[in-house]
């Protein structure tokens, strides 16, 4: 499949006979559906040529490995092709195998599938020329249903089970395939990592760091070496060092990797785990063998430079982009189903906007169950029901059922904007590689939150503007964390455009907290999520402040209630 995408892609991935013959060993092959090579020839009346093609496949894959495929979806043309397929099978002693084309799971999903095709092709259910399947038989049928379909050809459904039992694919899990980092002469992966870490230790903590810091570094290096991740650290250090040399903004570090002193000494992160008491064991634990997880952010306008470096440094055949699937959310599915059923955009959009944005991933069904009464959810239920029921008679199924069945479904695939697989073996051998529809091979991108990448780009632009307009050279990684004017801005909730601090709920919390140090911001970001946010009032009341401020805080939030008063919303995160 990888070669079909990388070398044979033309509108669709294609495999030629030469490639099939090269990889024929161990494959079980079926002649295919109505759109297959053999079936098309039979449909065109070219039986002799169809026999010749079937003979080639039988010769290449073997008599017991090539099956003449039979299907029955109630299509007239399929009946004629089936008769020809049986003649080819009987004449050469080829086994037959019954299958059913499955495009949806259950028979009742046929209308939803029809609506999905309309969404994908930009048509409506009322369009007589829309693309649709000719019958409702394209679902995953049970064994009893398949026996009934092929009751006159028992060999067909028996061979279906025989083919399934002969399939044996062994996939190995739990093994790491790390990329290989080429160390300088005289070093091993472990010794070179230690060398770089000791250099970074001196740069971060001076020539004579505390004994506890040295001991922490030795401990982490031992764990990393024992778990076999020295090469991983060196690879990550390598492309981050490249980014810093090129002046590309790199994030200070997110997640559990900020607890690693080795990562801090290497410059992978810029968060001091000693100062903030961060635990290395949350990142790597010898009692829980798992891959390290380093969240890395690059300025999105220069991320492609890092990508290009990784590909050139480690080889294009060892880098593969991660795929992402577009899915239909609650609001989107209401708009799309409304459009294909003929509702006006304004009407469908009005109903979709009544679906609350919090909690996240809410379903229209939950809105219907919990929305009785007043409020936006109740409006969504009552107005939506009146609007959607108008289509029930026209399309033989209630529109809300279409909506429920389509929600969460995949609309298509695309290269992930923030993830890539980098490994030691050739990626084409280890992973299925794809090209996108425009015949461009997907390129890798490093992991990162889009908003975080925007923030890095904005900070880089600001530093460049200050340099150009005032001649002041700033280092964004060395800005002081004790600037009183900055905390005054935060206390006034002037944080629009500030990553993780710009939502209305967070701004309300900052006004009440009146932060004075970076630890206050750390705590607020950690608390501001469903569940822990109930403790924010108590945290504010317990935060040491001058007596006047403490009195004002107690007046703002009652110490007996965990829920803040005033304009507080859990819908903004």
Task: Explain what the structure shows.
With 573 residues, the protein is mainly α. It has four domains: 2-100 and 141-166, Metal-dependent hydrolases (TIM Barrel, Alpha-Beta Barrel), CATH 3.20.20; 189-297, no CATH class; 327-410, Arc Repressor Mutant, subunit A; 480-573, no CATH class. Helix content is 47%, strand content 6%. The protein contains 26 helices and five strands. It has helices at 2-6, 17-22, 37-43, 47-61, 76-92, 110-121, 143-149, 154-166, 189-205, 211-227, 230-245, 261-266, 303-314, 330-340, 345-353, 364-370, 376-388, 392-395, 399-406, 427-430, 450-470, 484-491, 504-513, 518-527, 536-542, 547-556; strands at residues 29-30, 66-70, 96-98, 319-327, 410-422. It has a three-stranded parallel beta sheet with strand order 1-2-3. It has a two-stranded antiparallel sheet with strand order 4-5. Helix 3 (37-43) runs antiparallel to helix 4 and helix 14 (330-340) runs antiparallel to helix 15. It is extended and about 85 Å long. 29% of the residues are buried. Residues 372-377, 391-396, 436-450 and 550-573 have low confidence and may be disordered.
